[in-house]
Amino acid sequence: MSEEEVKLLVHKRGACAENQRDAQERKYEEFEVLYNATCLVIESLKDALSTSQIISVAQPEAAQQSQVIVQQQSLRAPLPTFDGKYEHWPRFKAMFQDLMSRSSDCDAIKLYHLEKSLVGDAAGIIDSQTIQDNNYAQAWTILEQRFENKRLIVDLHIRGLLNLKRKTKKSSKELRLLLDECCRHVENLKFLGQELLGVSELFVVNVLTAALDKETREHWESTLDHGVLSMYSVTLKPSPNFQKPYGQKLTNSVTSPSSATCELCSGQHPNFKCSVFRSMTVSQRIAKVKECRLCFNCLRKGHRSNMCASEKTCTKCSQKHHSLLHQEYPDVATIIPEKQEVEATSQAVVNATKTPAEISSEESVSNALVSHVSTQKPRFPLKEVLLLTAVVSLIDDSGRHHSCRALLDCASQVCLISSDMVRKLRKQPWSTNTEDVGITCKKKVRQGIIVTVASNHSEYKVDIPCLVMPQVSGIIPTRKIKMSKWHLPVNISLADPEFHSPKQVDLLIGNKFFFSLLKSGQIKISDDMPLLQETIFGLVVAESVDVPQQNVVLSNVVTENIDKMIQKFWEVEEVPDAPSTTTEEQLIEDHFMNTHRRDDTGRFVVRLPFHESVTKLGDNRALALKRFLLLEQRLQRRPELKQQYEAFIDEYEALGHCCEVNEAADLADVKRYYLPHHAVFKLTSSSTKVRVLFDATARSFGLSLNDVLQVGPTIQNDLLTILLLFRWPQFAFTADITKMYRQVWVDDCDTSFQRIFWRKTPTVPIRVLELKTVTYGTASAPFLAIRSLLQLAKDEQADFPEAAVVVCDHFYIDNVLTGADTETDAIRLRDDSRRPFASCYQAVCPVADIEVV
User: Fold this and answer.
1) Whether residues 253 and 303 fall in one domain
2) Number of structural domains in the chain
3) Is the pLDDT of residue 348 over 90?
4) Is 0.70 topped by the overall pTM?
5) What percent of the chain shows pLDDT beyond 90?
6) 408 with 426, same domain?
7) Which residues contact 795 (CB under 8 A, 6 or more apart)?
């Protein structure tokens, strides 16, 4: 039968009933697939047979056998596969197209091979119509449109480099896996035309070495020449010392610390470990370093300290020199006296008692010390900048003038006044809520005031709004300035006649008013004297003056006492001690351990933990009945609410969590309590919008139920700890326990304390129901539910150790937040965490799939 006859026969669907048309279509499609596959196989066999025959005619018998074997092997050659991952697409495309370009197969066979090469997520991407039409070019178009995204592929490889898994221990296997992973991403980037050049090469080296474990990193560092940048190609081809198995001692005579030659004593150890060098005084060490031409910072040869690439500095002063060369220097003025003659004279007197060798050695030390000090920046300024101060008058509401020392500050956005000055003015501040931010501190300001400022040298007055602070600034200046060499003009009006004396400042005038106070006049006394600037308040002294070197610099920022700041810091950062167990908490723990049990189904049964005051529990039946009747009237007015409320109670009863009781059968000595209940709306809930809340605080005569119940301690991790643990795994999941409180039964002896009134319509008698499970709203409910959960973890720990850890450390009330480092482990942990609950809890419901966090 020919191909046309077959198709004609298949398409004769007129005899097919209408209800069998779909089944017939499916059969037809299955036949088409089988038919096309068969045709491809036949075509390949025909091509192989024809090629074999041509070769057998043209070649001798031996050669014929060889050529036929080659042809058959080309047909059975393994083809590259593509799993649908974008980063694997470029290499697959290049390999497959190169292989097909060497083949003489028709497009139908090439399409057949292409479809078989698509596995995993890539399988089935080529549609059936393209396959049916044997359209090899269209198939490639489909694949290229889907996976030809160079930017996305490059991003995937860069992300792979950034997420290289850090080695946790020294292991040649882990090291090889790390290098293979890095090389795979780098080679793929090169294949995409993204070569490692310049900074990108250093970047990859940094990422790769950061993933090494500490010991391997140290070994690698020891193979590098000091200060030389390590290239990627060099990093992947470490020195023979680095390639030695772990446990063997490195023997690199140039870079290995274990065999380095000391430049100071020629011993086999690093310079800084030289015992002879360490036994010297600091001055002798400095002289020795200079003599050997070593770096002052790393004690190695070949460069100066200002060119040293080492990030390490002195541990005592953080300056760029080695800690072994640290010396508490006196002031520069004492090291390099102004008069060399004094130095020469004093040195001659000392040298008279020393040998020529000692004199030569100490001269070297002195020269090294002076050279080193001269290259260091002064730790503190040798000049003090004078801040602009002026004495002004503040006018109170009675018109009286109060003298006040003010600071003119163009760098302040606000004006400030001290609370002491406000009290002198007897003004009532207004409330504000402002934050005053300085260079090193931040303060809340609660009050403000408007003050009238008047000049003592003119009729100038201005109202200035100020923020009230306990202290405006520190003492200005920080020390008294000697003015014996100053020659100020006689007839001048200084804004602050005692500007040179340290005094308190009570007013700060900021940028808003600063420039309006300045005038154009200036007086320059001499080149070595400060400038006098004319202002509305008089002449102010500006610029800087020479003062003895000091250890205090004023930055015009009021800070708290450093001891108090450090104390506050440690108080905030301090981890609280684990709270000790109180007597009451121990009693409720003992009560749980002595009274809890598990029934035949595995569920926990607990007793309510009462105080001794349970005898004072009041009779609240009448109150609970009254509140139920009010609730019933409310539900009658709102049918939708009534419907949801009834559904809640019906479910409660259907699950066996409550049962009806006959009050007439109660014994005379039975204690009982009736729980009023009402509806609570929770619009954010995805399941139940209306929940029933039971009120255990209702009292009529005597105490309420919650008054006689013990609350219990907090026995779960706090939310912050759980969230921090949740951030640790790479793959995470969340879940919760369905109706957690109602999974725990209350002993029959105590259910009489959990009674409610209920009926669906006012036309039927009121029923009394007893709640048989731990009830939300009672004081002890959280402890009993959570304590049962932890007891479950303890009971099932032997069979489910990982799940027990999850229950103990990762649960917050009824919600769990946890995960694992791999997706497989996370799924296994999720499934294992459900199993301990199978016998005693209805379900642990996942609220989110496994996710990468």
Assistant:
1) no
2) 4
3) no
4) no
5) 14
6) yes
7) 598
